[in-house]
Amino acid sequence: MTPVLVLFFGVPPLAAVSSDLVASAVMKPVGSVVHLRRGTVHLGLVKLLCIGSIPAAFAGVLLARALGRGQQVQDVIRMALGVALLLAAAGLIVRAYLRLLEHARRRDGRADPLPQGRPSVVLRPYSTIAIGAVGGLIVGLTSVGSGSLIIIALMALYPNLKASQLVGTDLVQAVPLVASAALGHLLFGDFHLDLTTSMLAGCIPGVWVGAHLSSRAPGGLVRRALAFVLLASALKLLNVSNRDTAIALALVLVVAPVLWMLVRQHHGFPALASRKPRGVKPAA
Fold this sequence. Notes:
Elements: H1 2-9, H2 13-38, H3 43-66, H4 71-107, H5 125-142, H6 149-157, H7 163-188, H8 193-216, H9 219-237, H10 242-266
Helix pairs in contact: 1-2, 1-9, 2-7, 2-8, 3-5, 3-7, 4-9, 5-6, 5-7, 9-10
């Protein structure tokens, strides 16, 4: 949302971040209620993440203000947003690769059996609070990271968590995180009520339509498209020329699918996910 406002509608970066966070603070609780009802939230992790993320998100707004005024702070926010989007795109790739490794280990019998019921998780307080603090600071500065960067760190720190619990935990902890960042931007940012109202008018039906589309589209296709859009947005926010951006995106379109097919074959999977390897029964 933020790069779209900056690149296509000419909204100043700080105003885009402020309005996006306030709109997200309204939208985030909807999905959280669903996950709480389904029991796919680890409340202990949510508490630890919030201890680090809530003050850090608020501090991120103050840091943006301390970096300068006027055009100077806009340039800083734009640069930070570009870097955060690059990290988010890289995080999607890392997440896909970790899932591929996990499937390979289970196929070869090298992984522990899948946990039945709620998996036991040994909490790592200091590491979890640190993840929350870093993620909160990035969200406060750029509005990016509550649903991408933090979940990658949780996957690495708590590999026993089910995918549904990872998503539910990340979504619930994002509610107070985004609310804290939104409050900071309401007080010290560049919040525009008319801009946020217009965003919400489109976001509410858009979320409903998008949820139905994404539930039917292949997950891998959605992640690839999102990573490509994030990369394109990041390059433009970092002031890469149109020619260089086009060359980089064309190389990604040509090279990335070939590399991913080679990676899949290296781990014993067919090059294309739609094909099933011979002699291997699908997992239950």
